[in-house]
Amino acid sequence: MWGGRFAEGPDAIMQAINASIGFDRRLYAQDIAGSRAHAAMLAAQGILTDSDAQSIREGLLTVLSEIEAGQFPFRVELEDIHLNVESRLTEIIGEAGKRLHTGRSRNDQVAVDFRLWVRDQCDAAISGLTALMRAFVAQAEAGADWVMPGFTHLQTAQPVTWGHHMMAYVEMLARDRSRFADARARMNECPLGAAALAGTSFPIDRHRTAAELGFDRPTANSLDSVADRDFALEFLSAAAICAMHLSRFAEELVIWSSAQFRFVRLSDRWTTGSSIMPQKKNPDAAELLRAKLGRILGANVALFTVMKGLPLTYSKDMQEDKEQVFDAADSLMLALAAMTGMVGDMTANREVLAAAAGAGFSTATDLADWLVRALGLPFREAHHVTGALVALAEAKGCDLDELSLSEMTSVHPGITQEVYSVLGVENSVRSRMSYGGTAPDRVREQVARWKTLLG
Ligand code: ARG
């Protein structure tokens, strides 16, 4: 492609380090779409003849079908997908193929190809997230009023509802969805036509190619166009936050499915057995989901490190962007699909959840609140009295509602029989009616809201 200036071919190791065709072949569809838009624009502007544009269009379709049929002769000496496609096109259609690269460079070509690819991945992430949100909403709807312990510090804090816990993930995933949508909107500008870095002297129409490729507009600065990989970094950042959310629920599943907790039963479809211990049912999918953030965040750090301090504009360093993003995107899509399957299949163990909900003095806050309401104690004092009652119950090895009234009044004389009504977990969750609270009615409102939003 540039033989004019060179007397010798590259060293074999140079070829190995330089070539990207081993991985950037994944961009073939985007590369061909970009070339088709470019050729059509060149013809519309009178830069190419209609007949050249016509044979380029047909030739590119042939190349596309060869690649999709697995019959394309990829050549490592042609470095990357861009040169492979162009060279094969020229083999097929002759002279006209050599005119395609007018007013364009591989620098803007790779920028547009990769943006198109990452844009598709944003769409895939959004639909994967939507499916997962639906699975969580279905769990929440089934168990809007099932009580379970809510935790802070992984210590029993207050009773909550299963539905409320499930809906917490819907909120997180909704933020993830909007991050991908934001990133998509911001990346939706077309760098094609920036050429190598400075623009071109040919009378190209960048608005036309931008529109044809579904972009909102062309990018405004040619230097920025070929130097920018923010779109990839934003995708990786949104992916990392999303994977962090998945890892948190994965961790909960690992804990909850243990013999010590038994909060949930994972289906056979999402677990594995042990080759030696016959009783085992291991939450492998959850564990792998917990780990995926490692890879995805790793990709993010890798690309930041590649981009850091690169002078404008394009440097070959930037070829190191693709494998990271490919791997992170593959990992994320697989993780979303696996989590959706697992959440859809898991069964909450309602009785165990209910028993655990009442353990660990989980209604102590309700007791303190009652002292404030019924006896007019300042909250700090009510907190102190309740603490003394918990200590008494702990010393006796019983729960709060198993203390007798005289034991209660020995700590505070004003306590009456009525106190026992607030010590039950059902009453406790029902009373948490503040907006966003765990009361089953509140949860049902959120379920209804999300069912409408998710369609
Ligand atoms: N394979 C290259 C990449 O992925 C394409 C752009 C190459 N441009 C260049 N001037 N060498 O970044």
UniProtKB/TrEMBL annotation:
Residues 361-429 form the Argininosuccinate lyase C-terminal domain. It is found in: Cytoplasm. One of its GO terms (cellular component) is cytosol. GO terms for molecular function: argininosuccinate lyase activity. Its EC number is 4.3.2.1. Its main location: cytoplasm. Pfam families: ASL_C2 (PF14698), Lyase_1 (PF00206). Residues 4-298 form the Fumarate lyase N-terminal domain. Gene3D superfamilies: Fumarase/aspartase (C-terminal domain), Fumarase/aspartase (Central domain), Fumarase/aspartase (N-terminal domain). Belongs to the lyase 1 family. Argininosuccinate lyase subfamily. PANTHER family: ARGININOSUCCINATE LYASE (PTHR43814:SF1). NCBIfam families: argH. This is Argininosuccinate lyase. It comes from Neotabrizicola shimadae. The lineage of its organism: Bacteria, Pseudomonadati, Pseudomonadota, Alphaproteobacteria, Rhodobacterales.
